[in-house]
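To whoever is covering the structure queue this week,

Two jobs came back overnight. Logging them here so there's a record in the thread.

Job A:
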Amino acid sequence: MAFWLLVVVAGAMAAGPANERLTTEYSLPGEPGAETAERIVERFGNGGNQAPYLVSFTHPDGEQAAQGDAAAFDAAGEALPDLRLLHAGNTGDDAFVTDDGSTAYALLFWRWDETATSLPTDRIRDALEEAAPPGSTVGVTGYDALAVGSEEEGWGVLAEVVAGSVGALAVLAFVFASLLAFLPLVVAVGSIMATFVMLLGLTYLGDFSTLVTFLIALIGLGVAIDYSLLLVTRWREERHRGRDNHDAVVVAMGTAGRAVLVSGGTVAIGLISLLVLPVPFMRSVGIGGALIPLASVAATLSLTPALLGGIGPRVDWPRVRRENTASRAWTGWATRVVRARWVAAAASLAVLLALVGAFSGLKIGLASTEALAQNGSAYEDLHRLTDGGVPRGTLTPIEVLVSSDDADAVASDLAGVDGIDRALVSADATSSRDGESVVVLIPDHETVDSASVDVVDRVSERAGDLDGVIGVSGVGAMQSDFMDAVYGNFPLMLTLIALLTYVLLVRAFRSLLLPLKAVLLNLLSLGAAYGLVVLFWQYGWGSDAVFGIPETGAITFWVPLLIFAFLYGLSMDYEVFILARIREEYDATGNTDLAIVQGIGRTGRLVTSAALILFLAFAALAASPATDLKVMATGLGFGILLDATVIRSLLTPALVSLFGKWNWYLPDWAARLLRVPPSPVAVAEPEPRPVGTGS
C-alpha cells in the first residue's frame, strides 16, 4: 500500500508533463500523398495534408465586396508567419466573391503545429480584424475549426473522469451494498496514475498521440474498476462461505486473479497488434493503450489483495447482501437458456447478423461538415459562404506540387478532370519557391469519404501523365494513403490478434473448442457493433436525437481501428470471466449444463455491472465536443452492451450447452505443448443435480 501511495503521488506529478509532450501528428511515412505533403510543408511552411481555413470579409447591407479586400487579405497575411493566401487578387479568379457580391473570401494555408493545444483561429481572426476594410465583418472557418465542435468547450478530461467515477460508484454501491464500493475506485486511481508515470517515460523515446490521454483516463478507469470488482466479488464470496480473511484472499487470487491476468492479456494483445500498422500515431496509441491493462492488472493483483488483507473485513459494512449463494435471477435465466438453447442461439445470431449486414454499408473517411459543429462562429461563417454559392469542396482542396514553369499548363489540364470545380494558380511569392509551385484544385464536393475521394484518385491518375507534376496531396490524398497503408495491412493485424488470443485462451480454458468459439463470437460482436455505429452515426438514426448531430455520411478513418483494438480485448474480458467460472464449475461437477447454470448464476450480475461501469465511462467520453471522439465512445459503448447482453448472456451459454462435452477437449499433444494438464472427452456426463440456490 505504501508503494502504491508513492505511485499515486508520482502519477499526479507526471500527468501534466506527460500531456504536454503528446502530439497531434498523423503522418503516414512512405505513402505518396504523405511524401508530397511533407515536401510542400518543407518548401512553403504550410498546407500539405492540412485543410485550409476559409477567411472572409463581409460588407454590411449587401454592399458589394470592395476591390480593396485583396489588399486587406495581404495585410493580414503579413502579420501571420509561414502561411499561404489565395484570393481574387493573386489568382485573378472572381469566384472568391459570393454570388451576392457582399462577401470576399480567401484560402489560408497554415502550418499544423502538432504540439499546439488549441487551433490558431483566434490569432487569424485578430490579424484579419486589424486589416479589415471599414465596416466589414471578419469570418474564419474551415474543417478543423468545425471539427473541434461548437464553441462550447465540453467537460474536459478531468470532469469526464469525475462523471465516470460517480456513475461507477453508483453501480458498485448496488453490487456490494457496503463501503467496499469505494475499494475498486481506489485501485483505479492507482492504476491510472501508474499509467501516466509509464507514459511520461515513453514520451522521451517517441511521439505519442493526444488520444492516449482520453483513453488512459476513461478506459483505464473502467478496466481497473472491472478487474478489481471481479477480485473483490470473489473474495467476498469466499468470506461469506466461511473462510477466514487470509484464505479468502488466497482463493480469490487463485481463481479471479488468474482470470484478471488472462483478461489483461487479451486487451493488451488487441492493442499491441496496432504495431503491425505502418502509421506512427496508430502505433503510439497501441503502445500507450497497452499500458492501461498492464497497469490495471498490476494494481488489481497487488494493491487489491493488500487492501483486502488489511482493511477488507472492516469496510465490508453494512452487510446488506451476501455472496454465499448464486443469484436466483441469473440462475433462473441460465436454466431457461440451457433448456431452449436452439432457440436462444438462433435468435441471438439473427440479431447479430442483421447488424453485421448494416456494417456492410460502412463508408470510411471523415465526417461531413454538416455533422460537425452545429453552432458557433465557424458554423455561421461556413453557411454564409455556402449560401453564397461557394462549393463545399473549398474546405478540402487538392494540392498539386509542380514545377513552376509547368504550373499554368498543369492547372489548365487538371481543371478539366471530372469533379473539379476550378484550378487556382497564385502569382504570390508564397506559392512559388525554389522552382516549385502549388496548384490548388477545388472539388465540387468535400472529399471526406471513400466515395467522394474518387476525384482525388482521378486527379492523381491524370497528374501522373503530365510533365512537371511532382505529387498530389491534400485531405483527400491523406485518406487514400491511410486506406492503403492501414486497411491494406488489416488482414495481417486480424490474423495476428486472433492467433495470439486463441493460444492464450487454449491455455487458460484447457480446451480447443471454447477459445475458437470465443474468438469467432468476438469478431461477430465487433461486426454488430460497427453495424450500430453505421446506423447511429453514418445514417443518423439516433445521432441527431441524442447529440443534435445529423448523419456524418462516413466514419473517420482511424475510428474503426481504435474501436477494434480496444473492443476486441474489452469484450473478451467478459468471455474470460464467464468461461473461467464455468470451467471451474465443470471441473467440480463434470456436467456442462450444470456448470453453465452455476457459472452464469455466479457471474451474471458481475458481468452486467462491469459492462455498465465501462459503458458509463464511454458515456462520459462521449461528452467531448469533438464528433470523432463521440463516434468512438458510442461505438465502444454499443459493443460493450451487445457483448454483455446478446453475446455473453444468451449466445455463449446456448452454444456451450450445444457443444456439450466437446467444450472441454484438449488432447495430450496440445497440453504438453502448452504445459497444462490434458482434458480428455468424458465418456458420459453425469445427470445434473437440482440447481437454483448454490454451488
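Job B:
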Amino acid sequence: MNTASIAATIMEGRTALGIELGSTRIKACLVDSDGTPLASGSHTWENELVDGVWTYSLDAVWVGVQAAVRALLESAHDQYGARPDHFGAIGISAMMHGYLAFDAFDNLLTPFRTWRNTGTGRAAAGLTALLGVNIPQRWSVAHAYQAILDEEPHVAAVAHLTTLAGYVHWRLTGQKVLGIGDAAGMFPVDAAAASYDVDRLRLFDSAVATQHEYPSLSELLPRVLTAGQHAGRLTDEGALLLDPAGRLQPGIPFCPPEGDAGTGMVATNAVAARTGNVSVGTSVFAMVVLEQGLSAVHDEIDQVATPAGAPVAMVHCNNGAGELAAWAGVFREFAHATGNEVAADDVYEVLLRSALLGAPDAAGILAYNHLAGEPVVGTDAGCPLVVRSPESELTLANFARSQVYGIFGTLSLGMAVLRRDGVELDAIRAHGGLFRTEGAGQRLLAAALGVPVSVGAGAGEGGAWGAALLAVYLGHAHRVDLAGYLAEQVFAGAPVTVVAPDPEDLAGFAVFLQRYEVGLDVERAAVRVDGARVSRAAGELVR
C-alpha cells in the first residue's frame, strides 16, 4: 500500500492495536486488517525490589501504557499524516503469573508481586501435591496460598485476583475476564471445558479455602475466554486512560487479554501441535504445543494452554538476557571512557557476532545469568557468576559465547525433561530482541536445543504484534480456527530463516552443559552466602 491508502486505512479504523507490558518495555503495535505492522511505540520501564518483593507500581503501568500509545499515535502521524481516533479492535498482553489482589471496592491490597518472586515454595509444593499437577512458584494460586499460609492481613479482604494483562483489560473495558493462556498461569485449566479445572477448584476449596475461611477460588478468578471471543469494549474511562488528550473514541471491541507466552506463540505461528517457540527477554521460556498430555508431573514443566485452549508444556526460566544486558552496559561504558560513543544495539551486535567466533564449548568458561531465583535448578535467590579454570582462554569471543550459552543453560535442562517424556518437536520458532542480530542467537539456540530454529522477519517485535493479531482474529474466528488463520492469512509466504544445529556447536554445547550442571553447586553455594554478613565482615576489614 502507498502512504495515502495506509492513511485511509488508519483513519477509517481498519486496524488493530496491540499493547504488551513486558518486563523491560511496554510496546504498542498498530496493524492493518491483514496483520501487517504499520506503526509502533514503546516505553522503557524496570521492576523494583521493594521490601524484598519484585514489583511495578500501578502508576508506572499507566505512565508506560500512555507513553507507548502516544508514541504510536505520533509515529502514525509522522509516517502517514494520519492520527487515528479509533481502531477496529484492541488486544492486551502482559507478563504472566504473579499476584494482583483487590478488595470489593477495587482497591489494590498489596503491591503487585511479579512472576520473578520466588518466596512461594511452601505453597507451590503443597498445591502440587494436592492438585496432582505442577504448580510453579510464580503461579497466581501459589502466591494466593502463600499469603494465606503467612496469615497476611490483606487476605481477609480479597475479592478479586487477576494478572497484569487482566488488570489493564479490566480498567479499559470494565470486564474481569482473561484469555485461557493467561488463565492457565493462574490456576490449572481444563482444555475440553475451556475454563478452570472444576475438580481441582473443588479440591482447593475443600482443602484450603474451608480450612482458612477463604472465599471459593472460583469467585475470585477472572472469567475465562478463548481466542476469537469478544471480551468487552473500550469505556469512556478506558479511552482517557489510553489517550489522556481525549481524542480516542470509546466503544472499540477487545479480544481476550493474554499472557506474553500466548502472544509470543501467536507472533511466531506456534499454536499447532508439534510446534514450539522460545521467547528470550528478561526471562526465557519455551512453549511446546502437545499432541497429548504429559505422562507425569515434572517440577520443571508447567502445563498451560495456547490462546485457543490447546495443551502446552511450558519451560519457564526466571533469568534470561538480563545479565548479558548488564555486561553490554559495561562494555559500552568502557567505550565511553576511551572517548568512543557506541550505540547499545551496536554493543549487542559485537558481542553476539563475537560469540559465533568462540570455542564450541566456550573454552571452559561458565556463565550463570541468575539475577533472580531459578526454580528449574532449585535456587530461590539470584547470584550472577562467571566461573573459569586457570587453563581456560579468556577472550571476548569465548566470554561472549559463555554468556549466550548461559542464557540457554536452564532452558536446555528443562527441555531435556520433555524429551524424556516422549514429547517430539519438528522445530522451534524464536523471537525476542536477542534474535535481531541475524543468525547469532539462533545458531547457538539450535545447538542448545538440538532442533532447527526458525526466526521470522518480525522476531524482534514480540507480543505486541501477537496481541494485535489476536485482535484482528476477532473478525475471522467465525470461519477459521486460530492455527488456520495464522498459517493461511498471516504467515503464508512470510520470510523465515531456518538454522539447523551445527554438529560442532552441538558437541561443544554438550560439553558446556555438563560443566554447567556440575558448576550449579557453585551457584547454589553463592546463593546460600549471607550477603549482609559478608558485607559487614568486609567493612570490619576496611576499618
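Note for Job B: The first helix runs from residue 3 to 11.

Please reply-all if you pick these up so we don't duplicate work.
Q.
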